[in-house]
Amino acid sequence: MDRRKFFLLTYGCQMNKLDSELIASRMIQAGFEETEREEEAQVLLLNTCSIRESAEDRVWGRIGAMKARKKKDPEVIIGVLGCMAQEHKVFLRTRMPHIDVVCGTREFGRIDALVRESIETRKGVIATGEGGNGDLVQRELSCRPMRAQAFVNIIRGCNMPCTYCIVPATRGPEVSRPVDAIREEVERLVADGVTEVTLLGQTVNAYGHDLERGTDLALLLRELHQIPALRRISFVTSHPSFLTPRLMEAMAALPRVSRYFHLPAQSGSNQVLKAMKRGYTRERYLARIRDLKGLIPEMEFACDFIAGFPGETEEDHRQSLSLIEEVGFSQSFVFKYSPRKGTVSADYLRDDVPEEVKARRNQELLQTQERVSLARNRAQVGEVREILVEGPSKTRKDRYTGRTARNRIVHFANEDPNLVGRYVPVRIVEAQAHSLIGVLQEETRTVLEGDGVLAGKGRAEGASQ
Ligand code: SF4
Q: Same domain for 129 and 179?
């Protein structure tokens, strides 16, 4: 067994965080030891993201900086994994000889073997095919960020043609996992203390179209809902085109499915949606929201917006602002458009919205959302909500943080670390735009009877997208 220490740095989305959990699990099972201190590691792994060029630039900087370490210590192994490995494999190996292992998005299930091969042969190793299915890796409890919560991949890749997005090129076409494999994995996680799962996919609600007829996300949710100890089930990221009546009915019939729904619109203007090739109009998007609210009145919605897409006019922008008001999103993630090499919008559309206009529109979207979020959060004051306690607050030592079933962050005064991973009631006493302040209620109800804290190691995280 190789007892070398490895350091793993993760950039990007939830999918990458899950992949890193699987990468770390595989390395540990092969005898490597994880360390949070880069300087003491003999294997340095970067799990990368290429969704935006700015995200890539940060990774390039980090890869460049690792050259000095390799020069000082030629025995150290440096591996680049994930989207950038997939996209820039040739450049990485030919122009960056200090990189030993290049491991693509469908190969990380054998990362340990690739690292070992590089150690033994003292040569560079490239794997960017489909040789190492990461979803088959058994997950190590110590690699999970929190005992009670887990991400579970259900579909990888994307078949959609969104003109600004590099994901179909880096992650490949959609491949769904069989229902049985997912159910088995979730059952194992539940036996291990998980009570909340988030099902992941780039187009998570397209799940199943490549499997046996009749298999879809609605069926999978009904299947997982039968696992008694599973208290919360959510899924991201959904595409409006696949929000079918069947899926809505399943969500309405299954009370443990989250009442927080992230449904990215990207723009409120039909002209921009068409240029993005999103495949729906503002009217259809709103109709889906209305239908789902009709079935589940308490449902909360969150959105993504891109500010300053090529050709976006002031009127288009106003349409996005009005969409925030009309739906009353509880949260929006807003990004300034920046052309991403290799995408249709970068190659064929003129990036004609000036930087300062993009920045202003970005701000206006954020400010509108903050106003709407604050009003929604204020309506919670006085209510008692059940939260899953996630851990100490990042900003105040005397506070802990938890989340409601509708994904609202609640901070509350607490000194008892045993509450981590438990469901407790809090009374909401104050509202802010991005979070709530609560007071722990007397009748603390726990679902993990006699279960102590078992938080996993925090993995190093690079700047996200
Ligand atoms: S649905 Fe569109 S934005 Fe989402 S991953 Fe696929 S191509 Fe990218």
A: no
The number of the ligand 1 atom at minimal distance from the alpha carbon of 159 is: 6
What is the position in ligand 1's atom list of the atom closest to the CA of 158? 6
Residues 315 and 199 placed together within one structural domain of the fold: yes
Rounded distance from Cα 448 to ligand 1 centre (Å):
37
Low-confidence ranges of the chain (pLDDT < 50): 445-458, 463-465
Report if residue 426 sits inside a domain: yes
| CA gap 304, 270 in Å, rounded | 16
**Gap from CA of 335 to ligand 1 centroid (Å):** 15
User: Atom 2, ligand 1: which residue's CA is nearest?
Assistant: 162
Mutate to test the pocket of ligand 1, among 51, 164, 165, 209 (most ligand atoms within 8 A of CB): 165
Of the three residues 343, 378, 413, the one that is the final residue of a domain is 378
Q: What is the total count of domains within the chain?
A: 3
158 CA to centre of ligand 1 in angstroms: 6
Name the one residue in this structure whose structure tokens are 């693509």.
104
Residues 349 and 422 in one domain: no
- How far does the centroid of ligand 1 lie from the alpha carbon of residue 157, in Å? 9
Q: Are residues 118 and 213 in the same domain?
A: no
Clarify whether residues 125 and 176 are in a common domain.
no
Helix axes 245-253, 282-295, angle to 10 degrees: 30
Residue 457 lies in a domain: no
Q: Looking at this protein, which amino acid is placed at residue 359?
A: A
Return the residue whose CA atom lies nearest to atom 1 of ligand 1: 160
Q: What's the pTM value of the predicted model, to 2 decimals?
A: 0.90
Q: What is the pLDDT of residue 443?
A: 57
Domain-located, residue 22: yes
Q: Are 157 and 210 in contact (CB under 8 A)?
A: no
| Ligand 1 centroid – CA 201 distance (Å) | 10
Are 374 and 262 within one domain? Answer: yes
- Specify whether 294 is located in the same domain as 308: yes
284-332 pLDDT per residue, tens: 999 999 999 999 999 999 999 999 999 999 999 999 999 999 999 999 9
Whether 332 contacts 324, CB under 8 Å: yes
**DSSP per-residue string spanning 317-346:** HHHHHHHHHHHT-SEEEEEE----TTSHHH
What residue numbers bound the domain in which 13 lies?
5-133
Q: Are 95 and 74 in contact (CB under 8 A)?
A: no
How confident is the model at residue 367, as a pLDDT?
Answer: 98
Does some domain include residue 338?
yes
Tens digit of pLDDT for each residue in 77-109? Answer: 999 999 999 989 888 878 888 999 999 999 999
- The finding on whether 202 has its CB within 6 A of some atom of ligand 1 is yes
One-letter identity of residue 86: Q
Per the structure block, which two tokens stand in for 166?
Answer: 């590099």
Closest atom of ligand 1 relative to the 203 alpha carbon: 1
